[in-house]
Design a protein that fits this description.
The complex is a heterotrimer of chains A (160), B (789) and C (276). Chain B has 789 residues and is an alpha+beta fold. Chain B is 28% helix and 23% strand. Chain B contains 19 helices and 29 strands. In chain C, helix 8 (224-231) runs antiparallel to helix 9 (236-249) and helix 8 runs parallel beside helix 10. Classes of the chains: A alpha+beta (160), B alpha+beta (789), C alpha+beta (276).
Chain lengths: 160, 789, 276
């Protein structure tokens, strides 16, 4: 039995009929072809599926699509052009914060939220706060450097 | 030819040795990478595998409800697909078959039995749940010890025991060593079985392209050409009618470097039903049924003199290879490789090594970053520490004194390997200086205010990389990975496409191979496209594994581009009416003094205005090359890892306070990428050392099947790793490059364990098993306390 | 890993939710933040015919300062405690606990009521409400009742909630300003479930002390002797022995290693509460 839902995804209203068992990750990927959000575990641990639900990062793989009826969802695709996100992407490129790229969208969304809430964060705090996003390639060093560089850049941009 | 980089008359700002930022980043940062699950093929149906819930049983039948009978595919429905056979050439290697879908017997929890096909994965899983299996359970062979009991049921038909094969290496006179040694140290150690855990799981998507008359198989694989060969053989079709494509691959690490039953089953199904079919592995499948890694047991005996100089070594490595032999490596590669590198960076002239490969009812064991070397390093490095303690000297000193000195290079090891170049003692000295061993010892003596115990752990290794024909023949595999190709092709508008046979999945090869082209041609990296991963697009190559790609593909790209460079000069000189010997290639131009002609102008002439070419010059602007290093016995990268650990005796928790790697991979093409490969490897090594384990119970059930039980290091667990570079070029490779992708993962289990044992020595605790969990530490401390009473 | 099919309903009120759960006779399960339930559904570990989404019931998210206690709505997300968006009855302990388990993305959706009702023995809230002497407000087909936290958990994943009963609020008495808390938690890695977790509350001005141990594979354990011993200012060695004795007497069949770990966390939580 399908349930009708209406939600805003990356600024556009979307209406669909979904089975209750469909999770938000599959809804975004299969229904809307927004494939930046990756599925690494489907039980809420790896963080590859991190998206923003009503402005807060959440795991799309353990959010039933029916439960976000009426909510506002933003994926990495929908954060394109955002000043902080562009700063983060530039930093990830400069500081070699990615290798295979699979964990990267989730990393960027989580890091974006982190720097919004805690712009003065230090290295240890970055490591602890980003624990919900697993990476198997980088050993995290490039990711941490990228986030710290983006934090510095964002502060400089603000004070200009 | 090889050795140091050629004299440069022109500056190469993006060439070998420069930290160019990665070309491939853009699509990944935009979220526009296209991994297997992202491919949009209209009409695709999803597959869920029905897998064995038991470790060992006779499969009598599968009961499928009538309403879904046509949606469930059994072995008999794809009987034309031949089973996977990976038999090594070593004497006595037992024959076995690995069917794409189980027939007659199931041999590990998770073995594929049937494919359920539906328009969504959820519905396919519903079908799998609706089926019931008629299984007659057999006694599970859940452990090496169980497998080796005389009454253990043989897992494969026709076998009289559960040994795949045993091999030996015997060099030198062990009896003479036994007689003259002052000190004998014996140790047993073990490493737990674990999984590879790429962030992207495996997956296969197959369909029939009716226009080209070929079967197209997308697979998240590290070696598409080789998969094409074996898949065509297994399906009974001509290789020219099969295309295998690796799209963007989210990490491989060796787990995606095998011919999988699922690849064969899905491809066979696509042939049969003519619809696009897709299987995306889920995480539980990955942890249970993807090839596993690392389960080794060691018994070592070292014979040394009073100073701790090791005169001879006896080693026995037993590997739990699981139920089936993986293709193409065979079940015995892990044990064989371990026994084959056991003396490590040390000058140990006498060596008797035995490699025992055992069959059990577990997921097959395959190569995983470092492969057998991680276990061998674990064994010999904990041994060296033990020898040092036995003679009352520091592990640091004993280690360095036993190492092969640079003056001995090239050095033939007692395991039969030819170390090409390097200064192992210097790497060790630098690592120890960077970790400030003296300061650590002083800190240990002072004690910590919070009661934690400090330890210093060191481990060294040497790593065979980019080995070619001779080495693969020696390993007795069904295929020999002897070379790499490259096709370098200019387009009429003056840009370059490099078609290569390796498969980039995080190593930055879309950038570094372009850097090699820049080195040869002076073409800007942004004007170079690297195409890989598609058997229909690239010349036949072996893929990415064994730390080979940069050396092999880099060598081939260099050769092909060098040919093009000469042609560019000839045509450019002609267009400039200048002497050929006086023109230079740089910045996308051929120049003579102030005059220049662009690559676009030259390419335009070569393709579309051959009347402008010099007499006798053929049109077109592309070149093919193949490459193998001057010696196919491998280029040996090496390193010493040193770490400082703090062990909390109250909780068993281990913190890595400092971690240093001093490594030497010859000439580095891109230091930024090299450093990150080392750090990524160290993180995985820390996983092996402290967190990762898939235990099996006495029913053969895996006890860690999700990320709720299976832990990999996160950002708070991996310290900042300080990487020091040495560059001793290989005498046998282009630019002196050596492979280095795996090294970071080789030493950490040994370094960390040595550190923990160093910390816990005052409590009379010595651990010898990975992962070193808090429970194991607390238990060992409690046991030592009870013994003391 | 996709769930088996199930029906879905989103009641607008507590009464409606209770009625649906009672009608469902065990085959209907309430869905709070989903951070534990949806993984179980994805893994097909929990056969469920119908999910009752509590997310639409505004009352369950409301928090009230009642003067001597704070009454937290059961659907308050962990991040609300972490960020100080709700009043704090615990001198900062609840905010400290909330910011240190799982991951931010989980804390943005998971709820205190959901965690308590599931009663995963390693859940941080379980030992926290026991330490804070909270009262859990339940509502069901037979009406409302109040369950003291210490009587709430009966075993692993097993609470005293009856069939069809829901948690609607967690009432935490405001702890005295003179009280100090100590917190010690061991996880295999950051964000993982606790292997051992102890919370101590010591008020030397009033002469009270309390320590509770969680992640014990069952209900949290309160250790009165250890608390009294710490309050008396006993020397470390004596305190450790008391803790050891009391843990063994709890008859929980701890492994040798786990016993050592629990003894450590209890000791350190008490030591920190006493010395702060």
């Amino acid at each position: 039995m399908k349930i009708p839902i209406s939600l805003v995804v990356n600024g556009a209203t979307v209406e669909a009929q979904v089975e209750p068992r469909m999770h938000l990750g599959d809804f975004l990927r299969e229904h809307l072809r927004l494939t930046a959000t990756h599925l690494g575990c489907e039980h809420g641990v790896c963080g590859a599926c991190t998206v923003l639900i009503d402005g807060r990062p959440a795991r799309a793989c353990i959010t039933l699509a029916v439960t976000v009826n009426g909510a506002e969802i933003r994926t990495l695709e929908g954060l394109q052009g955002d000043a902080l996100m562009e700063t983060l992407k530039t930093a990830f490129h400069e500081k070699h914060g990615l290798q295979c790229g699979f964990c990267t969208p989730g990393m960027l969304v989580s890091a974006w939220d982190l720097l919004k809430r805690r712009p003065d964060i230090d290295e240890r705090e970055v490591r602890v706060a980003m624990s919900g996003n697993l990476c198997r390639c980088t050993g995290y060093q490039g990711i941490v450097r990228s986030i710290l560089a983006a934090a510095d850049e964002a502060k400089t941009a603000e004070s200009v | 030819m090889g050795g140091t980089r050629a004299e440069k008359t022109v500056e190469r700002t993006q060439g070998v040795g420069t930290p160019v930022r990665r070309v491939e980043d853009r699509r990944f940062l935009e979220g526009k990478g296209e991994y297997l699950a992202d491919l949009n093929i209209p009409g695709v149906v999803d597959i869920a595998f029905l897998r064995s819930p038991v470790a060992h049983a006779r499969l009598k039948g599968v009961h499928i409800p009538d309403r879904i009978r046509n949606s469930v595919v059994l072995a008999g429905d794809i009987a034309f697909a031949k089973p996977i056979v990976a038999v090594g050439k070593a004497k006595g290697f037992k024959y076995s078959e690995y069917p794409p879908l189980a027939t007659g017997r199931v041999r590990f929890v998770g073995e594929p039995i049937a494919m359920c096909v539906a328009s969504t994965r959820a519905e396919a899983e519903d079908m799998a749940q609706a089926c019931t299996l008629d299984l007659e359970e057999l006694p599970p062979v859940w452990d090496i010890d169980v497998a080796l009991r005389p009454d253990a049921p043989p897992i494969h038909d026709g076998w009289d025991n559960n040994l795949f094969v045993t091999t030996e290496i015997k060099t030198g006179d062990l009896n003479a060593v036994k007689a003259s040694a002052s000190v004998v140290v014996e140790k047993t150690m073990r490493m737990a079985r674990h999984a590879g855990v790429s962030m992207e799981t495996r997956g296969v998507l197959a369909y029939y392209d009716r226009r080209l008359g070929e079967l197209v198989v997308y697979s998240s694989t590290q070696f598409p050409h080789v998969i094409r060969t074996i898949l065509a053989q297994s399906l009974g079709i001509a290789e020219s009618t099969l295309r295998v494509v690796a799209p963007d691959v989210g990490g491989g690490f060796g787990i995606k470097n095998n011919f999988q039953p699922e690849e064969l089953a899905v491809a066979a199904l696509a042939m049969k039903i003519g619809r696009p079919v897709r299987w995306i592995e889920d995480r539980r499948e990955h942890l249970i049924a993807s090839p596993h890694a690392r389960e080794h047991r060691y018994r070592l005996k070292a014979y040394a003199d009073k100073a701790g100089r090791v005169l001879g070594l006896e080693a026995e490595v037993t590997v739990d290879a699981g139920a089936y032999s993986v293709w193409p490596w065979t079940a015995s590669m892990e044990a064989g490789m371990s026994a084959g590198i056991m003396t490590g960076p040390y000058d140990i002239p006498v060596y008797h090594g035995r490699a025992i490969t055992v069959c059990t009812n577990k997921s097959p064991l395959g190569p995983y970053r470092g492969v057998g070397r991680s276990g061998a390093c674990f064994a010999i490095e904990t041994m060296i520490d033990a020898v040092a303690r036995a003679v009352g000297r520091t592990p640091e000193d004993v280690r360095i004194e036993n190492m092969v000195p640079p003056t001995a290079m090239p050095y033939r090891s007692a395991t039969g390997k030819l170390y090409d170049s390097g200064d192992y003692p210097e790497a060790a000295r630098r690592a120890l200086a960077a970790i400030d061993a003296a300061a650590v010892r002083a800190r240990q003596a002072r004690g910590e205010p919070d009661g934690r115990l400090i330890g210093l752990g060191v481990a060294s290794y040497t790593e065979q990389s980019a080995h070619g024909t001779a080495e693969w023949v020696a390993r007795g595999l069904p295929v020999v990975f002897g070379y790499e190709p490259a096709l370098a092709r200019f387009t009429p508008d003056g840009k370059l496409i490099l078609f290569v046979g390796i498969q980039n999945h995080g190593q930055g090869l879309e950038t570094t191979l372009a850097q090699v082209a820049h080195e040869e041609l002076g073409i800007p990296v942004s004007d170079v496209v690297v195409r890989h991963g598609d058997s229909s697009v690239s010349p036949y190559g072996m893929g990415t594994f064994a730390s080979r790609s940069m050396t092999m593909a880099g060598g081939a790209v260099s050769r092909a581009c060098a040919i093009l460079a000469e042609k560019m000069k000839r045509i450019g000189a002609h267009l400039l009416q200048a002497p050929v010997d006086s023109v230079t290639l740089a910045d996308g131009k051929v120049s003579f003094g102030a005059q220049s002609v662009t690559f676009a102008e030259i390419a335009d002439a070569a393709y579309l205005h051959p009347e402008r070419l010099p007499t006798g010059e053929e049109p077109a602007l592309e070149a093919n090359a193949v490459y193998e290093p001057g010696r196919s016995t491998g280029a040996f990268s090496y390193a010493t890892h040193a770490c400082v650990v703090a062990v909390d005796p109250g909780t068993g928790l281990v913190e890595i306070l400092d971690y240093v790697v001093c490594h030497d991979c010859g000439t580095m093409v891109n230091p930024l990428i090299v450093e990150a490969q080392v750090v990524g490897g160290v993180a995985q090594g820390l996983g092996t050392a402290l967190y990762e384990e898939i235990p099996y119970d006495e029913n053969g059930q895996p006890l860690a099947s999700t990320f709720l039980d299976y832990l990999i290091p996160g950002p708070a667990e991996v310290p900042d790793v300080r990487v020091l570079h040495m560059e001793t070029p290989s005498p046998h490779t282009r630019f002196g490059i050596k492979g280095m992708g795996e090294g970071g993962a080789i030493a950490p289990p040994a370094a960390v364990l040595n550190g923990i044992n160093d910390a816990l020595r005052p409590l009379r605790v010595e651990l010898s098993e990975t992962p070193v969990t808090p429970e194991r530490i607390l238990d060992a401390i409690a046991a030592a306390q009870e013994n003391a009473r | 890993m996709k769930p088996a099919p199930f029906a879905y309903i989103r009641p607008a009120s507590i009464a409606e939710a209770v009625r649906i759960l009672a009608d469902g006779k065990g085959s209907a399960r309430p869905l709070a933040g989903g951070q534990s339930l949806v993984p179980m559904l994805n893994l097909r570990l929990a056969p469920v015919e119908r999910i009752v989404d509590l997310g639409g019931i505004a009352e369950l998210r409301q928090t009230r300062d009642d003067g001597t206690s704070v009454r937290y709505g059961a659907m308050t997300i962990h991040a609300a405690f972490e960020d100080g968006e709700v009043p704090d009855a615990s001198n900062g302990l609840m905010a400290h606990v909330a910011g240190r388990f799982a991951f931010r993305a989980v804390r943005n959706r998971g709820t205190i009521g959901g965690a308590l009702a599931l009663a995963d023995p390693a859940s941080d809230w379980l030992v926290t409400v026991v330490a804070l002497e909270a009262k859990l407000h339940a509502v069901g087909p037979d009406g409302r009742r109040v369950i003291p936290a210490e009587k709430f958990v009966l075993g692993p994943y097993f609470t005293s909630l009856a069939e069809g009963e829901l948690l609607e609020a967690i009432e935490v008495p405001k702890r005295p300003k003179t009280e100090r808390w100590g917190y010690c938690k061991v996880t295999a890695k950051v964000g993982e479930y606790a292997e051992s977790m102890a919370l101590a509350l010591v008020d030397r001005a009033r002469g009270t002390a309390r320590v509770a141990l969680g992640a014990t594979d069952g209900a949290p354990i309160v250790l009165p002797e250890a608390a009294a011993s710490a309050l008396r200012g006993e020397a470390a060695q004596s305190l450790r022995e008391t803790i050891q004795r009391e843990l063994v007497a709890a008859e929980r069949d701890f492994s040798r290693a786990k016993l050592a770990m629990h003894a450590t966390t209890v000791f350190r939580a008490l030591r920190d509460a006493v010395s702060s």
